[in-house]
Task: inverse folding
C-alpha cells in the first residue's frame, strides 16, 4: 500500500496511526500541501479531488477520506480493533471521531484559513481567533462525549476517536490554544505518546517533516 | 425511537431518510435551531453538545452525529442496505458521503455563517460568496467521486452518499448556487424525489417546516 500524506495533515496522520496499530507496512508518498503539490497534474491523476490522505491499494484502487479509509482497514484487517463490537458503543466512538473530523478539522484546515485570509481579507490575528474559537468549543464537546476514565477516550486501548484526537491536539498546541480544563485530553495524549504506533505516525517523525 | 431534528438541518435530514428507507417508525422532536433552542437546558440534557440530530433509542441511549447514527442503523437494521457489501466499494461510498458531511457541510452550516457575520464582521454578501465557494468546489469533487451512470450515486439504489447529497442540493438551491455542469447530481435528485422515503424526509414535509 502507498499512502499519499503530508507530515502536518491531521487527516493523513489519523490513517498513519491506523496503519501502524494494525501493523501494516506501507510506502509513504509525501505531497507538499503548503507548496500546493496537491494541485499538480501528477497528484490529480491519483486523487482528482487534490486532497490527502489517499491510500493506493496494491490492486490500484485509490481510497480517500480518512475515516472511510480507516473503516476499510478495520473491515479488512480487523485486529487490533479500532471500534468496539457493540453497535451503540461503536456509534459513540464514531460520533466522537466525527466531532473532530467533521466539526473541528474542516473549519480549521489550511484551505479554509487561506480562503479566510485571501478572499475575505482577514488578518493572521483574525485567522488565529477563528482557529481558537472552533478548536476550543469542539474539544470541549469531545471531552463531554468520551468516557470519564480510562487510558484512552473509550477504555484502555485506542479507538478511531483517539486517532482523530491526537493530531487535533498537536494542531491546538501549534496554534497556542489554552487547554486549561481539558486535562483529560492531555492525559490521553500522554498515553498515546508511549505507544510506538503513535510515535511513528507523529508529524515530526515523518520523512517530509520540516523544522518548525 | 425519538429523533431530535430541525426541518432544514441537512444532518438531521440524512437520518430521516435512513429511518424512512429502513421503514423504522420514530417520533419527531423538533428543535428550533434558528431560535437557538438547541442551547436550552432542556435540549442540553439530551445532547450536551447542543446540536441536532440526536437519536434517542428506546433504552434511553442518545446517539449523535448523523453518519455515526446511520452506521448504527445499518448495523442494527441491515435491510435495505445503505452501503455495498464489498470493502473497497463501501470505502468509496463512505468517502463520497464524507466529502459532503466533512468537506462541504461543516464550513457552510448555520453556526459557522453566523460566526462569520458576527465575529468577523462580514456582510450577508460575503456570507453568500463563502457558501457558494465551498458548495461549488465540494459538489464538483462529489461528482468526480461517484459512478458515471445509474439512478443514484452508486448504482440504482440509494446509499449513504445519496442521503448526504439530497439535503446538500436543497441547500445549494436555497443559496442560489449555479448547478451548471452538475446535471448528473440533478438527475440523482430527481430520482430520489420519486421515492416516498425521500419525500417524507424533505425539509418542507416536516412538522416544524415554515414558509420560506
Result:
Amino acid at each position: 500500500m502507498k499512502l499519499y500524506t503530508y507530515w502536518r495533515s491531521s487527516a493523513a496522520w489519523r490513517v498513519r496511526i491506523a496503519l501502524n496499530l494494525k501493523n501494516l507496512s506501507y510506502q509513504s508518498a509525501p505531497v507538499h500541501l503548503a507548496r500546493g503539490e496537491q494541485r499538480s497534474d501528477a497528484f490529480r491523476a491519483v486523487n482528482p479531488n487534490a486532497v490527502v490522505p489517499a491510500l493506493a491499494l496494491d490492486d490500484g484502487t485509490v481510497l480517500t477520506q480518512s475515516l472511510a479509509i480507516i473503516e476499510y482497514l478495520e473491515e479488512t484487517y480487523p485486529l487490533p480493533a479500532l471500534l468496539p463490537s457493540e453497535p451503540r458503543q461503536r456509534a459513540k466512538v464514531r460520533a466522537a471521531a466525527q466531532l473532530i473530523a467533521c466539526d473541528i478539522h474542516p473549519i480549521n484546515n489550511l484551505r479554509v484559513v487561506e480562503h479566510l485570509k485571501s478572499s475575505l481579507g482577514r488578518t493572521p490575528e483574525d485567522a488565529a481567533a477563528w482557529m481558537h474559537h472552533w478548536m476550543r468549543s469542539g474539544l470541549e464537546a469531545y471531552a463531554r462525549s468520551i468516557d470519564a476514565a480510562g487510558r484512552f477516550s473509550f477504555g484502555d486501548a485506542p479507538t478511531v476517536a483517539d486517532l482523530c484526537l491526537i493530531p487535533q491536539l498537536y494542531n491546538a498546541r501549534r496554534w497556542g490554544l489554552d487547554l486549561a480544563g481539558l486535562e483529560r485530553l492531555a492525559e490521553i495524549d500522554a498515553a498515546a505518546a508511549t505507544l510506538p504506533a503513535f510515535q511513528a505516525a507523529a508529524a515530526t517523525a515523518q520523512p517530509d517533516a520540516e523544522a518548525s
